[in-house]
Amino acid sequence: LSPIVELNVGGEMYTTTLSTLKKHPGSKLAEMFTGQPKLRTDSEGRFFIDRPGTYFKYILEYLRSNQVPTQCVQDVYKEALFYDIEPLIKQLENSPQIFGELVARKQFLARVPNYGENIELMIRIARAEAVASRRSSVIVCVVRTEEDAARCQDALNSLDMDKKSVVKFGPWKAAPSISDLLDCIQMDIEAKGYKISFQPHVAEKGFRFKSQDFFYKFLFTWW
């Protein structure tokens, strides 16, 4: 291989040295250029990598100067994982953005039973109700403690609605509050491309519990 390498990464063109690409011998990127090249070439003879080219510049800058990016951190982290550049992965995991996501938020959500399944259930219910409608809503019951879970069940039995359509979150043993969990639900559904908002759900007159203690309405807007 020539010591000067031309790359086409997802349509973005880069020129660098072979030694830069092989700086971390155990990485997937180094393996691509070790021995016989394991990559296809484009019509101009440049090695082609089918990854987002926008973020490869941050990977390359790190390999050249050990500079850890402060922009597009989440996206660069995904690319660092793909290229398996272990030192960059570790440094990015210490950044506020990744640390907060992996150590704080995801560790909290791991303690909320069936969190991921409930997110998918909410989306299925909302999509089922979206026919010929601009908006559809999903009622969510959020309980933080076992005591609240029992009270919520009593409240559910008094609700004049299909109880199967109410998605229940909790209880959990962690510091974050109900409002923190509601923010997480909105964040994760929006990350899937949906437009969503939520508000306390006010039940019908004469309801024997303060419904806003447990129940929230998530509103999906389709157009």
From TrEMBL:
Top-level taxon of the source organism: Eukaryota
Protein name: BTB/POZ domain-containing protein KCTD14
UniProt-listed SUPFAM superfamilies: POZ domain
The BTB domain, residue ranges: 3-100
Alphabetized Gene3D superfamilies for the sequence: Potassium Channel Kv1.1, Chain A (3.30.710.10)
Native species: Nipponia nippon (Crested ibis)
Gene Ontology BP annotations: protein homooligomerization
